[in-house]
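Lab notebook, bench 4. Continuing the backlog of folding jobs that were queued last week. Each job is logged with the same field layout so the records can be merged later without manual cleanup. Today's entry covers NAD-dependent succinate-semialdehyde dehydrogenase, a 475-residue chain. Filled in by technician R.K.

JOB TYPE: sequence-to-structure
TARGET: NAD-dependent succinate-semialdehyde dehydrogenase
LENGTH: 475
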Amino acid sequence: MSDLVFSDSFIDGDFYSTSQRFSVDNPATAEAITHVSNIDKAGVELAIKSADEAFSKLKQTTATERSETLRRWYDLVIEHKQQLAELMTKEQGKPLKEALGEVEYGAGFIKWFSEEAKRSYGDSIPATDSQHRLSTIKQPVGVVAGITPWNFPIAMITRKVAPAYAAGCSFVIKPSEHTPLCAIALAYLADKAGFVKGALNVVVSENAKMVGEIMTESERVRKFTFTGSTGVGKQLLAQCASTIKNTSMELGGNAPFIIFENANLDDAVTGLMGAKFRNAGQTCVAANRIFVERSVLETVLEKLTDKVAELKVGNGLDEGVDIGPLIYPKAKEKVQSLVEDAVNKGASLIGDNKELEGSFQAPLILTDVTPEMDIYHDEVFGPVISIIAFDNEQEVLKLANDVPYGLAAYFYSDNIKQIYRVSEALEYGMIGINEGLISNPVAPFGGVKQSGLGREGGHQGLDEYLEEKYLCMKI
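JOB STATUS: finished
OUTPUT FIELD FOLLOWS
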């Protein structure tokens, strides 16, 4: 209990062990933190059965009861903030100061939905005649299954599980095999907080395909939620079609970051540093294509180069580290491949692309990036800034929108008319205006186009786990 490191799946309020195990490695040292049991098919089915049985009990609880339980979970997460953050840094790699921030951010979803649990309202509808009374009520959708990624191993879970529990839904979640430890710790703390047994089950497996197929094909699972790549999201959506599941998907992005000539350039560069280098660039809302108005390009590059040079790369547990390792060596190989392709096609490199040990990647700036380069179209998921010059607002809007994704976008401008025009013209679900860090539990998070379906956070996040029922009564 002291370090919250557990090595088994968590089903029906207890640990579920199998003989087959795999290692969870620290990406900074490549050393094993622990070896976790690799769940079998029977374990996944048991978790769904447990969630189904828990749902029959959970849906009978009151909103106030669920609210109080969530609040106790929040208190326990905050009480163990330091332990959870250190565990996150060990299994995921992000600097400890970022991990502490994520624990608080993730806990914020629990707190928010502990309050929203009591705000699930129906409607009274004016009838068309005197003999009828019309109304609607909201009820929990049922058993929920979810798959979460490795880049935010706490927040990705709490922003799904907290609204589900608030609504009265039970949950089976599969965290990434690279970062399962935070998920198990969260489930353990939820159990201590008084969750209905079986209302939160964590299944740990290296075989995501097997788990995903069972979840999406199960008749007991009525809602499926996924955060990850667009390609995998499409496959899972297709699998959910056979049982007509309610789904929500938070998928890939290719976020533009636009700096207009009238912007406060110091603020813009500071905002860009946060939007790009948080979690070593491994976020779905990371600034990917940086559009800078040509008249201020040189000034922006000077300011940006100085700030990037100050970044310290290293083990996230070490003092003063700004950028931790990428999650595994193949992630670094992908970044290096994108940089090499861009340079070969005419991009200029600012910074020392020195070879660092293991999964560490030095921060870099690429200029003269064009649509012919792979890095222009692909999510980098690494600490590389791609600079594209533009000449006017119409041009940059066309470039920014000319991708199949629409998750997050950012722009800096001090012209209020331009702010309204650009905000409305950008085809993205979330817009940062003179701000590089936009995520907040009280606001809806989600994208348009091929970046996903549904919203997480805000009052909208609770509705994702509720179904509306229409009542027509003759009197």
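OBSERVATION: The two ends are 59 Å apart (CA to CA).
SIGNED: R.K.
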